[in-house]
Design a protein that fits this description.
Radius of gyration: 22 Å
Number of strands: 10
Number of domains: 2
Number of helices: 11
Shape: globular
């Protein structure tokens, strides 16, 4: 009996010694810069949200949070690279509805498992898609644009941040609901797409990240794909108000870590990101982008949301007719 007790005590002591460095590592986290991967190029909504968050999160963590843009393949290249990073809290991802919900139904090879390869941390925001045209466009309303598109199939085109992006799916859904044949022009990210929209190289875009250009008068917002008008654009009607079929389309953004990231690190990051999102300056900047903010939620609740969105986007992709091109 004594021998058994002695062996048990020894085993517990050894376990304590093994766990001590791990606990210490969690207690000192972070002790070096944190990388925040954005699987899209600079200039779009994902990048803008990441930079706002990184600035303030770095101040709270006491370490720089460095935004790392890894674009390509509809967000898949950066996301696939991210899931191979160590699960130590030093590499995070700005996950989106495109990469983590729509792409599993658009691509046969992702390089990651959307349901298994991520540790949810915190929801950031969602942004409804806005129907926008260049300031030189002849269209003054969504009704005018749809009427022309119906009478002239294939004559108009719409830009997107890439195959499977929120703009792509919104455009495909727009075609489906409005009975139009507007041609899809995919870009390698929202930034390049908006640049060509501003230059008049493409006719329209259902975008989530160019509100600043709308407010500056460089782009004209015709309608919002949301159930209600946005506070940031009180004079822009919803598609339903414009007398067109009601349509709801938006992109969401959340912070994740690689699979098996330790719970203490996840909890710490969730609390700090929640605190950042509660800052008046941050809230104001996000609302100015047209974002819709949610009440804080736990990583567990975010995980359930991720799975529900994967399931929901299966139907959205099927109904929209969107396919990898």
């Amino acid at each position: 009996m004594r021998s058994f007790l002695a062996r048990s005590a020894t085993a517990l002591a050894m376990l304590g010694l093994l766990c001590a460095p791990l606990a210490s590592a969690h207690a000192t986290y972070p002790d070096k810069p944190v990388k925040l991967v954005v699987p899209w190029p600079p200039g779009g909504a994902t990048d803008a949200l990441a930079r706002i968050l990184a600035q303030h999160l770095g101040q709270r963590l006491g370490q720089p949070v460095i935004v790392d843009n890894k674009a390509g393949a509809g967000g898949n290249i950066g996301t696939a690279s991210f899931v191979r990073e160590p699960a130590d809290g030093y590499t995070l991802l700005m996950a989106t509805s495109s990469t983590n919900a729509a792409n599993p139904h658009l691509y046969s090879r992702l390089g990651f498992d959307a349901a298994k390869d991520f540790t949810p941390i915190a929801f950031v925001a969602s942004i409804p898609n806005i129907l926008e045209v260049p300031k030189s466009s002849p269209f003054a309303s969504a009704t005018d644009l749809v009427a022309f598109a119906r009478e002239n199939p294939g004559k108009l085109n719409y830009a997107s941040g890439g195959v499977g992006s929120s703009q792509h799916l919104a455009g495909a859904m727009f075609n489906h609901l409005m009975g139009t044949e507007i041609v899809h022009v995919p870009y390698k990210g929202s930034g390049p797409a908006v640049a060509d929209l501003l230059a008049g190289q493409v006719d329209l875009m259902l975008d989530t990240g160019s509100l600043a250009q709308v407010k500056a008068g460089a782009l004209r917002a015709l309608a919002v794909a949301a159930p209600e008008r946005l506070p940031a654009l009180p004079n822009v009607p919803t598609l339903a108000e414009a007398g067109l079929p009601a349509m709801q389309a938006s992109a969401w953004y959340a912070i994740t870590a690689p699979r098996d990231t330790p719970a203490p690190i996840v909890s710490h990051l969730n609390a700090e990101i929640t605190a950042v999102l509660a800052m008046p300056d941050v809230r104001s900047r996000l609302l100015d982008m047209g974002a819709i903010l949610r009440e804080p939620q736990s990583p567990e609740a975010l995980g359930a949301f991720f799975q529900a969105e994967i399931d929901r986007y299966q139907e959205i992709v099927a109904v929209s007719g969107a396919r990898v091109e």
